[in-house]
Amino acid sequence: MSEGTENTTKFSSTSVALTDNLIDYGKQLSMNFDKNQFSSLISIYSLMTELDSNKDIEDNLVKTIKKQFQILPSFYHVQVCRLFITRFNAEIEPEITAIPLDSTSVEIEDQLLGICDDFDIYLHKIPSIFEVLYLLVKSGSDENESNDLRKKVNLLLTNRNLQAKVLLDFCDKYQAKYSEKLKRGVFPGAY
């Protein structure tokens, strides 16, 4: 088996295991919320907050997830994110259903892509899709941010059906825009 094939197999296996662990994390976290108050974005934000903390991680599941994120190139994160959101909505909060596209959805998706563009322009890197979602929620809770942004983030967090639509559409847009660049980092010999 060639090194490229071994890596692809390793990354595919890690992607599936990471998604399973994200679901387990979401199930554990959901116990802390009232019915209809929990969502995939809250789960992602909570996890990213734990991973972003300077404190030592004590939870073994979170430690495992951190290691899996470190192993897995960003190219695979969008697939994990999409699968996590889809499974989350089916397994943890099955009453969530994506709504039809509207102008608010597009505005929020554009805001998410803007975060990616800022990373690309100023830091010359493409952020993980999970990092982008975390940063949007974090900026939406910042009192120094615009009232419009805070309202959109609040709507995204409270309207779980809108959230499902925005997150899944954003996965598609992120992948369409960045997959070729991210793929070069994983499969450099193919280019």
Describe the structure.
The protein has 8 helices and no strands. It is mostly helical and 191 residues long. The longest helix is centred in the first third of the chain and has 28 residues, at 3-30. The model has no long low-confidence stretch (mean pLDDT 91).
| Average of pLDDT | 91
H/E topology pattern? HHHHHHHH
Overall geometric form: globular
Quaternary structure of the protein: single chain
Number of strands: 0
Number of helices: 8
How far from one another are the termini?
Answer: 21 Å
What's the gyration radius in Å?
17 Å
Tell me roughly what share of residues is in helical segments.
over 70%
Largest sheet: none
Percentage of residues in DSSP E strands: under 5%
The low-confidence runs, each spanning 5 or more residues with pLDDT under 50, are none
Instruction: Please state the structural category.
Output: mainly alpha
How are the secondary structure elements laid out?
Elements: H1 3-30, H2 40-52, H3 60-71, H4 74-91, H5 103-123, H6 129-140, H7 147-158, H8 160-186
Helix pairs in contact: 1-2, 1-3, 1-4, 2-6, 4-8, 5-6, 5-8, 6-7, 7-8
Could you give a short description of this structure?
By secondary structure, the protein is an all-alpha fold. Helix content is 75%, strand content 0%. Helix 1 (3-30) packs parallel to helix 4 (74-91).
Top keywords for this entry?
about 190 residues, mainly alpha, 8 helices, about 75% helix, globular
